Fold these 4 entries.
Entry 1:
Amino acid sequence: MSIKADTHDSNTYYVPHSSPWPIIGSVALFTTVGGAAMWLNHAHAGPWVMTVGFLILATAVSAWRHHRHQPRILWPTIAAFLLVGFEGWLGGRVVAHELAAWIVTAHLIVAIVIVQLLLYVTVEATRPAGGGLLQTEGRLAMLLIVFTLVQAGVGTQVRGHLETALDAGVARDVALSTVGTLDYLHRDLAFGVLFGAALFTLWLLSRRSPLVQWSLVVLTLAVLQIALGIVMAYGSLIPAAQVGHLTIASLLLGAETVLWLSSWRQSV
């Protein structure tokens, strides 16, 4: 009985397709474990960092299981996931540079980008098939987002100058007067955002667009942001007003992002 020779080429071997998931999992685990270590060392941010690590890992796993063949969902999730690790490193640099205004601005912008990426993934995952982009609405909403980002960036610069003045012993009721031109620019940009949101809302109302609901949310948040800014300016920088002002600014950018993304859900 003869035995056939093995015709398999010994020089041929299988190379699996490249995958981003090992590095994604590594970053998630690093963020989670890093947060746990911070918590054990009594760092106040520890639980929050660990929670973010868990949530981004869960989002990445879900994207891989259900949307790995949809690049518009998969890659923004990966980008948000990687930016979380960068944001953690950047937070350490903020402390190392003693809250320098420029790096605080970078820290805030990266955080906003992470949130916007995750909002994009959420809306895209629920977008009905056959939807497209309403060109004019989408462009106007994006213009409003960019304008608000500039205003937020200037705001962090104002905050940095305030911290410097307060550390130098300047009284809280006069600290804002030391900022100068940046403060006036920040105020003008805030009113510019309000004016743009109002015009956009009126335009959507005239077209009876379903997007008007989110534009009204944006308009309301823009009004609240200015109101809290006034409270801060004439209330000796009340800490609660400062926290509220930053929170409303973050919500404003989130609402504008949802408004922009919702324009993709309309059929063209």
Entry 2:
Amino acid sequence: MGGLIALVLAVITVIIIAISSGKKEKKRIASINNHLDEWGERFVKTLISSKIPYYRAKKIMEKRNELGDSIIESLIWKNIKIGMDEDMLWLALGAPTSIDNKEETANSKKKRFVYGIPRKGAQYYWIKDGIITKIKK
């Protein structure tokens, strides 16, 4: 009997989480759709299909005039490339799990951004003077 009660409670919990997630997703989609006139149908569809959180979508799209459509699309899809700057990395991936290998000389500043758990599929981005110089995924 106790096992049956535990199973029923587990199923109820899963249903509640699914309903809550569905409401959050509807809210995210509605928030992005509110910018249809401003961002255009292409970007609204891209932002919705990429599952990008609304707050990140808004930050990225605020840079559209400055960066151009091609780079904006790369950021939405988290397609980071050597030569992009540190701000673009933050826009696309958010805050890194850690920042290490910091080195500062009279002529330059270097650091490494780590996203994920080292030795367990983490991604590494080396930054020199604000520009991505090396990527390891």
Entry 3:
Amino acid sequence: MKNMWKYCLVALTVSALLLACPSAFSDDRGGGGGGGGGGGGIEMQAVLVGTDLQPDATGLATFRAQSTARGLEVTVDAVDLTNTVWVLVNGDIVAQITIIATRGGGGIETRRGDDVPDVQSGDLIEIADDDGNVLLWGVF
């Protein structure tokens, strides 16, 4: 129960920051201008917090979309229970990350032929071990 309050506090803090400073969490680079194209992209981030299994673990997930291209990048730190983790969005496995010296990161992009989910605000992202135990989680 104690950790549930911790997760709620983190989620509320992130939500408050997004509402108070939306420009600090958006991509201010704008779109490309050449040929009249570009612009109109979105970027969302989810701060990842550790569960009871990995209470000191942290991470960040960033989703970007522009036109028909999408990408998801995830980094994790202080994961010491496993050498491989799975990235799940709304319960569906979307990527695998190798952990080296308690850190790991990776990304998927539609431009490379990867299947990237169309992440929406409020979507759940989880980092789990091979047994399905959730080590970190966050909300976009």
Entry 4:
Amino acid sequence: MDLFKPAYNIAQTAGSRLGVKASNEALQRMSAAKMGANNPMYGKDLSGANNPMYGKDLSGANNPRYGKMNSAVHRARISASLSTAMLGNTNAPSLAVTILDIETNITTTYDSLSKAALAINSNYSTLASLDKRKNPTAPFKSRYIVTIHR
């Protein structure tokens, strides 16, 4: 659909309203459609009578967790969880990466994807996906031939 660029389709990307400017009439219709009982917040009590946390300042001493510390075991579990979430499986072996710079004809081998990505000003996930491309031997950034040793 995107390739044909039909005159009647005002959306730049098929299936997306991104970049489409609604007319004033359309805005008024959309507004009217969400008024009264059609509004998802209609009838909700936001005064705080049903929920004492509404409108309450929870900073500093008012925060229920103020002054409380997690146990050392709990902090270790949180740290391990965050490390795994950010770095993936930390027990997985590193992948060696060889990068050939076409401009200088220098080949460098790195012992991990992270170090290789840092060296060529890229990121881990981009380098990890390079060998899944249709043409994995095509130069990356028009300059580097990246070989991942799995």
